[in-house]
Write the structure tokens for this entry.
Amino acid sequence: MNIDLSGMHVLVTGASSGIGTAISRALALAGATVGVHYNRNAENAKALVRELGNGACAFRSNLAIPEECSSLFLDALEKFDTIDVLVNNAGIIINSPIEGDAGQWIEKWNTTIMVNLTAAGILSRAAVNHFIEHDGGRIINIASRAAFRGDTPDYLAYAASKGGMVAMSRSIARAYGKDNIKSFVVAPGFVRTGMARQFIEQYGESIVVDDLALNRLTEPEDVAPTVVFLASGVMDHATGCTIDINAGSYVK
Ligand SMILES: NC(=O)c1ccc[n+]([C@@H]2O[C@H](COP(=O)([O-])OP(=O)(O)OC[C@H]3O[C@@H](n4cnc5c(N)ncnc54)[C@H](OP(=O)(O)O)[C@@H]3O)[C@@H](O)[C@H]2O)c1
């Protein structure tokens, strides 16, 4: 089977590192024009745009700020005219023990929900409205195993944000299928990126690998091909589904 995304415009949030970079590379390899979103890491984003070619373009926005979420979609539309696929990939994880100061805990909770869930909601709303006017489109949400298995107590907000993302994705799939809009979740387990580095450095890689059914840690490149597959349309009748990529660490 040949997957050809030529002519498709795909906006990938958090494309400046980790899983988002791997997704962008895989999409471009399949022929897509990629909107490379970033916040702080302009250097990586701009280098990636040069590497991808094919009309790729970088867009900066801080997804902790609602207005910047809305303007991101508009900026991408202005550049590309149409967007066919939105990949909600940007995310954060903040260590926040419940024993600490309540004010700080609430602040970290709100920041996590804003970046991981509210931003994805604002972008999905903009995408759905655009797709309704342009005969459809696809949304691919990068959630987490934590949405289903739960996380450790220091990361309650992270798990909650990803659970919310799953519910949002399923709702969009059910509500807008007749408008030719499809929505999917990809739920990675532990993946070797900047987000996971701190844990690996603190506890060692073997702790993570021991938890897997497979014998090596998942790399960003193990996640990316699924996104290409979902973006292509061959999986449209699986709309509303979640694809787990967790090396067999949580089978449901
Ligand atoms: N790594 C894992 O083990 C794992 C497991 C399950 C799910 N996931 C999910 O996979 C997705 C990608 O994670 P990753 O591991 O690739 O992490 P990463 O390497 O830390 O990358 C995170 C990306 O999100 C962007 N980002 C963070 N805060 C932002 C903000 N306020 N505004 C705009 N963009 C922001 C970053 O942009 P800048 O660097 O440009 O600021 C970066 O591109 C996340 O949603 C994460 O929850 C990861």
The chain is about 50% helix and 15% strand. The radius of gyration is 17 Å.
